């Protein structure tokens, strides 16, 4: 796959097989193969990762929010292996379902401590 | 037949999305102070919002993405974050003003202080957001908002001098109040006509309702009928205030004064309809601003958003929604007068207008998202001219607010 990483991959919306929104490509992790050639290993997602990428005071603020609403600190980024990417157009489309990926720590935290406690949280409106 | 019905309902939601507390306050105040001299602002505003809502709808239908979903990949995370913070704050202040409007409408209906109604209104708004279907929600409040037509009817019962109204509209004068105040009021009225949340909501709503390129014609007709009808309602508010208050030079600074001429003209029944209309348009706009605030945040971070999935599957989205409503309540419980809050909200909206409208124009010309459905030459010309007006209003808003001391 030939891609301009910064232009076509970074900051794109990640969408799963069923159209669920998974997150954004907040950063990209590289790895180095046996011959010393770097390659794109995973897409990283989560506002902690985004905070580290932006840096500065605003970045630290985003990281601290990510840590406030998480069960474990430091919050590990969500890693999406490049092998799961089916297609890149106006969004990054995955082969798998969102449920097969590690869940977002903030989403899980807020679900457990807030939204699930409100009656009617699992009613779909449509 | 079903298609016709669907189109009608789309129009209704566009009308509901157009008129809100900003129009109630700004249009009536403009009418009371300057007669019909600001009518042209409404016409220009409607023309502009039609052009931009059409672009936003087209982007949603063709790319399946809301406009602000695309801002971050076009502008980068830092600039987009700045845009997000500014838009979010203004949208939450707008939400607070709309909640205040709901509470004031309830005060008019019951005689109990609006402060008692603020928490009730907020809980009701949140419950509707939590439980009601998206399409139903849009239509109920759009339809009820049409009750504002009572203002147009009242014009015929009032001693309206039509020739004079026409004259005031065509031969603009500052009515002895000074041109800086005239332009301050013009900027506020303009901001109320093209409030940023309207396009946020319109484009995200298109994605929620899964528009495709096949729905483009429907989307276009909703815009081209709905917004002008909304503009007509705002124009009747302006005209009623012009007839009732302009000749005597009475200052208008409460919602109760906005409704009073209707009561004079049509009696208690008219007043009841007017109060129902106030309730419907502010409640509908409170829903839309709440959703818009949460859409903006969720789309920046790429979270699951919208009312299609259960709240537990969009926990972050629903948390932001809940927090935004709470922030609105807190703002009102400082006992700031909701009408005054609306005036400040309009100035702030005017300042951030370019942040909303520039990205739409940029994306609507991007073949990566729109293919061959990018803007044509004429709509680009219209969009560019309108963008100049928006930038002028944005730059002028704060200086005018200071010079005129918020239009005193």
Plain-language structure description:
The complex is a heterodimer of chains A (126) and B (408). By secondary structure, chain A is α+β, with helices and mostly antiparallel strands. Helices cover 28% and strands 25% of the residues of chain A. In chain A, the strands form two sheets. In chain A, strands 2-1-7-6 form a four-stranded mixed beta sheet, with no helix packed on it. Chain A has a three-stranded antiparallel beta sheet with strand order 3-4-5. In chain A, helix 2 (47-54) packs antiparallel against helix 3. The N and C termini of chain B lie far apart (52 Å). Chain B has helices at residues 2-18, 21-34, 39-63, 67-75, 77-110, 114-131, 134-145, 149-157, 162-170, 179-193, 196-208, 216-245, 255-301, 315-333, 338-363, 367-370, 377-403. Chain B has a single domain, classed as Hydantoin permease. Chain B contains 17 helices and no strands. Classes of the chains: A alpha+beta (126), B mainly alpha (408). The A-B interface holds A 10-14, 20-24, 26, 45, 47, 50, 53-54, 58, 90-91, 98, 104, 106-108, 110-111, 114-116, 118, 120-126 and B 63-65, 69-70, 72-73, 76-78, 81, 130-134, 301-305, 307-313, 315-316, 318-319, 322, 368-369.
Write down the Rg of chain A. Answer: 16 Å
- Main beta-sheet annotation of chain B: none
Proportion of residues in β-strands of chain B? under 5%
Low-confidence stretches of chain A: none
Secondary-structure-derived class of chain B: mainly alpha
Annotation, overall tally of beta strands of chain A:
7
Let me know the CATH homologous superfamily of chain A. PRC-barrel domain
- Termini gap of chain A: 38 Å
N→C terminal distance of chain B: 52 Å
Low-confidence spans of chain B: none
Number of domains of chain B: 1
Question: Regarding CATH, which class of chain A?
Answer: Mainly Beta
- For the biggest β-sheet of chain A, the strand order reads 2-1-7-6
Named CATH architecture of chain B: Orthogonal Bundle
CATH topology (fold) name of chain B: Hydantoin permease
Q: Order of helices and strands of chain A, N to C?
A: HEEEEHHEEEH
SSE pattern of chain B, N- to C-terminal: HHHHHHHHHHHHHHHHH
Q: Total domains of chain A, how many?
A: 1
**Structural class by helix and strand composition of chain A:** alpha+beta
């Amino acid at each position: 796959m030939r891609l301009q990483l910064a232009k076509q991959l970074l900051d794109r919306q990640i969408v799963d097989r069923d159209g669920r929104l998974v997150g954004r490509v907040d950063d990209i992790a590289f790895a180095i193969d046996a011959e010393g050639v770097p390659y794109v290993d995973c897409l990283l997602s989560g506002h902690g990762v985004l905070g580290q990428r932006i840096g500065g005071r605003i970045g630290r603020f985003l990281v601290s929010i990510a840590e406030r609403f998480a069960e474990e600190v430091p919050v590990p980024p969500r890693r999406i292996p490049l092998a799961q990417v089916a297609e890149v157009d106006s969004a990054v489309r995955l082969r798998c379902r969102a449920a097969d990926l590690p869940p977002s720590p903030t989403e899980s935290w807020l679900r457990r401590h807030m939204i699930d406690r409100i009656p009617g949280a699992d009613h779909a409106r449509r | 037949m079903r298609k016709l019905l669907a189109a009608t309902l789309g129009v209704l939601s566009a009308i509901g999305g157009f008129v809100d507390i900003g129009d109630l306050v700004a249009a009536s105040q403009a009418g009371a102070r300057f007669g019909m001299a600001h009518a042209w602002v409404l016409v220009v505003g409607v023309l502009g919002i039609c052009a931009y809502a059409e672009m936003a709808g087209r982007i949603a239908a063709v790319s399946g993405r809301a406009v602000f979903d695309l801002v971050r990949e076009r502008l980068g995370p830092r600039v987009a974050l700045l845009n997000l913070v500014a838009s979010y704050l203004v949208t939450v202040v707008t939400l607070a003003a709309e909640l205040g409007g709901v509470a004031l409408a309830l005060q008019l209906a019951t005689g109990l202080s609006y402060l008692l109604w603020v928490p009730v209104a907020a809980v009701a708004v949140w419950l509707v957001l939590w439980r009601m279907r998206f399409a139903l929600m849009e239509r109920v409040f759009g339809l009820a908002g049409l009750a504002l037509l009572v203002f147009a009817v009242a014009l015929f019962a009032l001693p309206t001098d039509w020739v004079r109204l026409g004259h005031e509209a065509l031969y603009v004068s500052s009515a002895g109040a000074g041109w800086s105040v005239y332009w301050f009021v013009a900027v506020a009225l303009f901001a109320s006509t093209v409030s940023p949340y309207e396009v946020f909501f319109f484009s995200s709503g298109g994605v929620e309702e899964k528009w495709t390129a096949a729905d483009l014609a429907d989307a276009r007709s909703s815009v081209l009928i709905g917004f002008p009808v909304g503009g007509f309602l705002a124009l009747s508010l302006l005209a009623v205030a012009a007839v009732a208050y302009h000749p005597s030079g009475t200052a208008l600074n409460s919602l109760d004064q906005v409704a009073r001429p209707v009561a004079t003209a049509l009696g208690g029944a008219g007043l009841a309809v007017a109060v129902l209309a106030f309730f419907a348009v502010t409640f509908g706009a409170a829903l839309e601003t709440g959703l818009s605030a949460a859409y903006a945040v969720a789309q920046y971070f790429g979270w699951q958003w919208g009312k299609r999935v259960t709240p537990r599957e969009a926990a972050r989205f629903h948390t932001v929604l809940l927090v935004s409503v709470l922030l609105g309540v807190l703002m009102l419980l400082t006992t700031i007068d909701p009408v005054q809050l609306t005036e400040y909200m309009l100035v702030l909206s005017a300042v951030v207008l370019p942040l909303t409208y520039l990205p739409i124009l940029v994306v609507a010309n991007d073949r990566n998202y729109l293919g061959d459905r990018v803007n044509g030459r004429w709509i680009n010309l219209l969009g560019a001219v309108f963008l100049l007006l928006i930038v002028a209003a944005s730059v002028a808003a704060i200086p005018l607010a200071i010079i005129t001391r918020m239009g005193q």
